Amino acid sequence: MTDDSDYRVIATSFGSVAAEYEQGRPGYPDRLFDELERLAGRSLKGARVLDVGAGTGIATRLLAGRGAEVVAVEPSPGMGEQFLASSPGIPLVRGSGDELPFHDRSADVITYAQAFHWIHPELAIPEAVRVLRPGGAIAAWWNVKDETVPWVRALGERMAAALPGRYHGYGKIDHHAGHFAEAGLDAASAVLRWEREVTVDQLIKDLTSRSYLASLDPVPRAAVLADERAALLAEFPDGRLTEPYVLSLTVARTPGGAA
Question: What is the DSSP string of 155-169?
């Protein structure tokens, strides 16, 4: 998670770009949920799942599509409003991973899709263990653009130059996952590679929704995005491109389940 000094300002910035988040952010391949089930040792079908930091519901809807009984947990009013518009019929609760508004032993799986780095692990992991039934699972995953691909690496370099001290990726995912071991939980990981076909406009919306730009004042943000759009169109004149991802998943299981 980012430093507490600017955490709240950055975290609350997502509400103002909720529409761009919904339109621009990538989804997740079916293989992610196959791996989640394998590492959790149970099917998602019929499982009570809390999707923490649900945002606009991108992962929540996919979990529901696998037959899970999902409840979304989201602290941002702006994101919550977009969630209700995009994910009708799925319950939404205002809250955060640091203080889950649920009874003890009331869930089977708790997920953090692109969200685990926004919580305080020393608070959120004990909260998850409290809310999970014996043998339950905590799953955290991140889509990270594959910077071994030249154009993706160049995009990151441009962002770092345009936003010194602000631009960041997801840091070391292994560091985030290491909090489970520190809490005494057994965890296992999987890494998947996948890609999506997008337009330059869609990619610009994705960038708009990233915290390092969402939390920037509108005028300098628009200038950075205009420059980036021009750079992308210079490389992809037809306005279409293939965007590669490395998807990292970690699942920690709580004690007490079947062997």
Answer: HHHHHHHHSTTT---
Q: Rounded to whole angstroms, how far apart are CA atoms 19 and 126?
A: 33
Residue type, 48: R
Domains along the sequence of the chain with CATH: 4-145+169-194+245-253 (3.40.50.150)
Task: For 11-43, write each residue's pLDDT tens digit.
Answer: 566 878 999 999 999 999 999 999 999 999 999
Helix, strand, coil in percent for the chain, rounding step 5: 45, 25, 30
Quote the pTM value: 0.92
Q: Which amino acid is at 241?
A: L
CA–CA dist 21, 113 (Å, integer): 13
Put the strands of the sheet holding 92-94 in their side by side order. Answer: 92-94, 69-74, 48-52, 107-113, 132-145, 240-253, 186-199
- CB distance 166 to 224 below 8 Å: no
Model confidence band, residue 177 (pLDDT cutoffs 50, 70, 90): confident
- Given the DSSP bridges, would you call strands 107-113 and 240-253 parallel, antiparallel or unpaired? unpaired
pLDDT band at 166 (very low <50, low <70, confident <90, very high): confident
